[in-house]
Amino acid sequence: MKVKFWGTRGSIPVPGKDTIIYGGNTTCIEITLESGRRIIIDAGTGIRSLGEHLANIGEELNIVILITHIHWDHIIGFPFFTPIFNPSTKIEVDGIHTCMKGIKHIFDYRLGDGFFPIKFNDLKAEISHLDKLRHGPVAIDGAVIDTIPLQHPQGGFGYRFREGSKSLAFITDNELTEDAWKGSRPGNFVRFCRDVDLLIHDAQYSPQEIGARKGWGHSDYSSAVDLALESNAGKLLLFHHDPSRNDEQVESFKVECDRLVNDKGSDLPVDAAIEETELKV
């Protein structure tokens, strides 16, 4: 498996001189299986650059898009995803039960006076709702995808991918707290992430900030470190960087995580997700 980050930011896109290193686009990652099949998680503004990349490759696309939840920063890039205007593109959408509602309402929402000039039914790609993940694990080209409910307003899904002996967990927009709903408490995530080679987790806030943001559905970097250590993850990547955080401040989170890991007597590698970088799991 390979994972590439096309959008690492949370809440709102903030491209500019202060976010050159870690990126300013909102959530979108691409996972490429050993078979070459591409699975995209979320359609934040990062999906626009991914779409241009895929268009330049020129191959016929048969992709799966998994939606964690339908807050705007995770779906707003979908109308700008170039492959949706190509009739040879096939897209299967799955994830949270509202996934299709979310991407359709960007185009056609009766309560609004038009949010986008093109109707969903005018898109040229073949777009269908897979609607399997909410019922249990799904196998795609030999890889198995599991879900876990997120502790986030209006809910959402975190994902675990297993392919051969390798595994990764992608958990964004998640508040690690004992006050969480049943099935979304820290212990549930420890079991879900047990022994993954790579854990990508929401670390939007610092421990000093999290108290004033209780219930907002995001975690601080210290809680993400604790989860990685308790689940015996091979590596932790901090994700969903706050829009107010510049590159230097994101880097400081990594430095603080290294200190926490060292204080706990571990050698867990910790880094912050960087837009347009790729890792092999």
Task: Write up what this structure looks like.
The protein has 281 residues and is of the alpha/beta class. It has a single domain, classed as Metallo-beta-lactamase, Chain A, CATH 3.60.15. The chain is 20% helix and 25% strand. The strands form 2 sheets. Strands 6-5-4-3-2-1-14 form a 7-stranded mixed sheet. A 7-stranded mixed sheet has the order 7-8-9-10-11-12-13. A hairpin with a 2-residue loop joins strand 7 and strand 8. Helix 5 crosses helix 6. The mean pLDDT is 96.
CATH superfamily: Ribonuclease Z/Hydroxyacylglutathione hydrolase-like
Whole-number count of domains = 1
Radius of gyration: 18 Å
Counting DSSP E segments of at least 2 residues, the number of strands comes to 14
Instruction: Find the CATH topology.
Output: Metallo-beta-lactamase, Chain A
Strand content: 15-25%
**Adjacency order of strands in the biggest sheet:** 6-5-4-3-2-1-14
- List unreliable stretches of 5+ residues: none
Shape assignment:
globular
The assigned structural class equals alpha/beta
Question: What's the story with the biggest beta sheet?
Answer: 7 strands, mixed
CATH architecture: 4-Layer Sandwich
Helix content: 10-25%
| CATH top level assignment | Alpha Beta
Distance between the termini: 5 Å
Order of helices and strands: EEEHEEHEEEEEHEHHEHEE
Mean pLDDT: 96
